[in-house]
């Protein structure tokens, strides 16, 4: 047997059903917003890690280059010192020998 629908009961239930539907819709929006914020935070963290590693690699490369240049600079300094010493010695030898010998051509 089918019972007739009471309009007052249906009207009272529509408010409750409407609230449930609003909560469900808000829940899905809140979930999407939370997921979006979480993805942004992960993206920022990943970018920060990449920047930190890139900076660390750059500093390591600089250190390596400096280490490579140091021996070369030392070698160049030693060479220039030796050249200066040779030049000084040669000048002393030339100055000592001047006036001792006379070149005569016939």
Task: Chart the SSEs and their pairings.
Layout: H1 7-97
Give a short summary of the structure.
The chain is mostly helical.
Key terms for this structure?
106 residues, 86% helix, mainly alpha, 1 helix
How does this model look, in words?
- This protein is 86% helix and 0% strand.
- The protein has 1 helix and no strands.
- It is mostly helical and 106 residues long.
- The model has no long low-confidence stretch (mean pLDDT 78).
- It starts with 6 loop residues before the first helix and ends in a 9-residue tail after the last helix.
Number of helices: 1
Q: Tell me about the largest β-sheet.
A: none
* Silhouette: rod-shaped
Q: What Rg, in angstroms, do the CA atoms define?
A: 45 Å
Low-confidence stretches: none
The helix/strand series, from N terminus to C terminus, equals H
Q: Strand tally, please? A: 0
Helical percent range? over 70%
SS-derived structural category: mainly alpha
The averaged pLDDT comes out at 78
For the terminal residues, how far apart are their CA atoms? 154 Å
User: What is the chains' assembly state?
Assistant: single chain
Strand content: under 5%
